[in-house]
Amino acid sequence: MPGGERGSRSHGPTHLTILPTYRCTAACEQCCFESNPHISGRIPIDRILDYIDQAARDFPTLALVVFSGGECFLLRDDLDRAIRRAASRNLATRCVTNGYWATSKAAARRRLGALYRAGLTELNFSTGDEHQKFVPFESVVHGATTAAEYGLSAVIVIEGCREARFTMQSALAHPMLARFLEESPARRNLTLLNNVWMPFQEGSSITQEDEIYRRGDRLQRYRGCDNVLENLVITPHEQAASCCGLTFEHIPEMKLGSARGRSLRDLYDSQMEDFIKIWLRVDGPERILHFATTKDPSISFPADAMHPCQVCARLFLDQRVRQVLQRHFLDKVPEVMFRYRMMRRLEERSDPSFAPGGSGTGARVGYGV
């Protein structure tokens, strides 16, 4: 890598996301990975541990290991082993779950007690109309409140769309959750969020409020993608990927290659030869698509894009957009590369692990997943 040892230290992911399986106890109709209980296959635990060890050794920038899926709790005791390994490398850890296992407070305490002792630091729960066809909200409440009582950072993420029957107001009205938020000292550890629930199946009736849609006249709202180059992903097929965006499985260019045959460092560094990844990190997909529209006015913003990942997919999957970017990307290289280098230099200066004598091993939470 040009720039010597310090150059290689000054870039790398802040997150390692391991998707050990796409199997799930739920089968949400709009799941981005089409997860369901009938999917088989997972990453063996010895290779999960090896990926954690590689990333901890080779990326001083690494702060957090995320376990998602699918449903990562289906790993059972292997999840505890993976959490323990990451914690032993001074890394924060996060699990993303539907909460199926928290059938009661006692069940939640049993499961989370083991993970807390292993070193888990964050726990995110997904819920909403689709998820609740398979997991009642009460299980999510059992799990999230118990996690908060253990001192974990707990988040309940609610599917957000205009047609939603279960909303943030519905969640806050749940008696057990309302009492916890009013009375428990641990309430400071629990956050509730709405996400943007986007369609993956043809004929979906999912819509959003007008202000959610990603439009060309709203560019001032949009920033660079905080997932690409910041998040190194291992899929259940042990492919390394550039991001964990909702559409990454639909974009072949987001796959970096087999993590079995090459080191994670080599796979990550290979992205630095792909200008559009750097461009996405600096400007985000909306500004790149806008650039394409200035070169070919027949290209327009998609009227139904409610999430940046949908716009990103357009960049890669729309042949007309691809051709325009291939013809004109050199116009943007000097500016984007300058801004990217400045971004990295500022990050380096603000991170004490890069100071002379800095260890680079302290856990610090960076961008969200």
What can you see in these coordinates?
There is one protein chain. The chain has helices at residues 4-9, 45-58, 77-88, 105-118, 137-149, 168-172, 175-183, 264-270, 275-283, 285-295, 308-317, 319-328, 333-350, and strands at residues 15-18, 64-67, 92-97, 122-127, 153-158, 190-194, 231-234, 239-241, 255-258. It is of the alpha/beta class. A 9-stranded mixed sheet has the order 6-5-4-3-2-1-7-8-9, with helices on one face. α10 (285-295) packs across α11. The longest helix is centred in the C-terminal third of the chain and has 18 residues, at 333-350. It is globular, with a radius of gyration of 21 Å.
Whole-number mean pLDDT: 91
Q: Which of globular, elongated, flat, extended, rod-shaped describes the shape? A: globular
Distance between the termini: 27 Å
Q: Which H/E pattern describes the elements?
A: HEHEHEHEHEHHEEEEHHHHHH
Main sheet?
9 strands, mixed
Main sheet: which strands, in order across? Answer: 6-5-4-3-2-1-7-8-9
Work out the strand percent.
5-15%
- Judged by helices, strands and strand pairing, the structural class is alpha/beta
Would you spell out the secondary-structure blueprint of this structure?
Elements: H1 4-9, E1 15-18, H2 45-58, E2 64-67, H3 77-88, E3 92-97, H4 105-118, E4 122-127, H5 137-149, E5 153-158, H6 168-172, H7 175-183, E6 190-194, E7 231-234, E8 239-241, E9 255-258, H8 264-270, H9 275-283, H10 285-295, H11 308-317, H12 319-328, H13 333-350
Parallel strand pairs: 1-2, 1-7, 2-3, 3-4, 4-5, 5-6
Antiparallel strand pairs: 7-8, 8-9
Helix pairs in contact: 2-3, 3-4, 4-5, 9-13, 10-11, 10-12, 11-12
